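Appendix B, record 7
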Amino acid sequence: MALTYWDYLKLDGLLELQEPRSTPPEHDETLFIVIHQVYELWFKQLLHELDKVKRDLSANKLYDAIHTFQRSRTIMKTLVGQLDILETMTPMSFTSFRDRLDTASGFQSAQYREFEFLLGYKRPEMLKYQTASSANPDARGHREKLERRLSEPSLVDHFYEFLGQNGVTIPDELTNRDVTQSNQPQPAIQDGLLNLYTTRPDVAILFELMTDFDEGLQEWRYRHVKLVERTIGNKKGTGGSLGVAFLKQSLFLPIFADLWAIRHRL
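Structure tokens (predicted):
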């Protein structure tokens, strides 16, 4: 039998995954489920793309990294745009089914934590929300993936490798740093970054794309915080987080801090 579009995309299974828990189903619960499932698909794609960027940077494949960062930046803009759809759901609509979520929360998204760890924003304490002893094998697998992401070099660490191959002196303490800790601004490399920005137009394109991506992530965080704030106010999150207060901790935290630090010198 010839392969069909429907079979290739496994649409029968995909379209059966939206199961509202409210009885009778609240109208907006389907939207809530679809939006978050789509987010998880985009997180999967971003992990796929940014893993490639890591390899490209370490291999000094500038144009490959540029191409993939362009795609990743566009996905990031799509994530921001999807919030416009979710904001059509009123606080009353969400309240009508919120209690059906029980302890389920986006706070528990293993893929989003992977995304943060990959980028270099590492918080080992977040592992406790992925229970390794769970009877659910998927939960154990999520914990293992996060532990792997925690212990491997981040995208920023691979960026240091790229810079080192392009004339920037990378201090030994940075090359040999504890990769389980978050990346921090590094004043020691900023002069080298500035030199590349002003003497290598091709590398400057990559730097601008990285800054675009970083700005998009900060925009998504801001829009997400405001969405949560307008929907539940100062209530705690269903997953046990502090809700808005927790989200604000990373609100304007840049990933590529050194690219932002030199803006005033350009």
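Remarks on this record: The chain has 13 helices and no strands. The mean pLDDT is 90.
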